[in-house]
Amino acid sequence: MTAETLEQDNGIKARSTAGSRLEAIAGGEQIASEIHPELATEDNVLDVEDFQLWYGKAKALHNISMTVPKGKVTALIGPSGCGKSTLLRSVNRLNDLIDIVRIEGDMKLSGESVYGPNVDVIELRKRMGMVFQKSNPFPMSIYENVVYSLRIDGERNKKVLDEVCERSLRGAALWDEAKDRLHDSALGLSGGQQQRLCIARAIAAEPEVLLMDEPCSALDPIATNKIEDMIDALKGEYTILIVTHNMQQAARSSDYTAFMYLGRLIEYGPTDAIFQNPRLVETQDYVTGRFG
After folding, report:
1. 15 burial class (0-12, 13-18, 19+ CB within 10 angstroms)?
2. Residue 200's closest CA among 135, 153, 253?
3. pTM for this entry
4. d(CA 65, CA 83)
5. Which of 135, 206, 130, 194 is nearest to 167 (CA)?
6. Residues 71-123 pLDDT 10s
7. What is the C-alpha to C-alpha distance for residues 113 and 286, in angstroms, rounded to an integer?
8. What is the pLDDT of residues 186-203, one digit of tens each?
């Protein structure tokens, strides 16, 4: 039996095709995504449908179609500039803030169009929590940071605000560290604590999807471990879509992983399969560090 046959028998498309496939992608050709069948069995909260995005004349996302399973953690991985953050920010329409952006296709959140002509973008964003690469606590108390979304919606009942504050800080694994300083400035927290506070603020409104754009990239290993433990505790209750450059983090923290390259979705499936038995050699090469 030849080496090529052995590779195919192992479920990986032959290495001899890898160069031609990558060259085709680099040349602008549309390559079909490899979607694992397990995704078809999931209850989805987000459906991305033939989504394309341009920055002026430069095309950043090419015909992305994928689903995001409800209550699971889905990681977006790929080399810098492959479109991960662009796709993530398209979910809550943050890219609308860039004048030269143009899109085609659609996304649906719980069956409702994200890009429909009558969509209230402010209301849409209330249905999603967003955590950025760099923590961005508001210059106010820890307590007011957490309950901010309720305040702007008109909630004045102190009992409700207190309950949401405690529940959210517990969910973000910050309650024990912050409960005796709730009315101190959030800016006095450490970097890792500030990031967990931003997560508490994001989940206070009980979003349908929690979006995380490299939330640990500026943190030390101890703070990163706390964030990963928190993500593990939150899944099931929340649907989490996370962009990460850290292969180990994706492998540890996610249920599903989507590998992107040059604005294309290359392979998408259960995390164990993507890291241990991918169907495409390009995916294997990326997760094992051969390129990227």
Report:
1. middle
2. 135
3. 0.90
4. 14
5. 206
6. 999 999 999 999 999 999 999 999 998 999 999 999 999 999 999 999 999 99
7. 33
8. 999 999 999 999 999 999
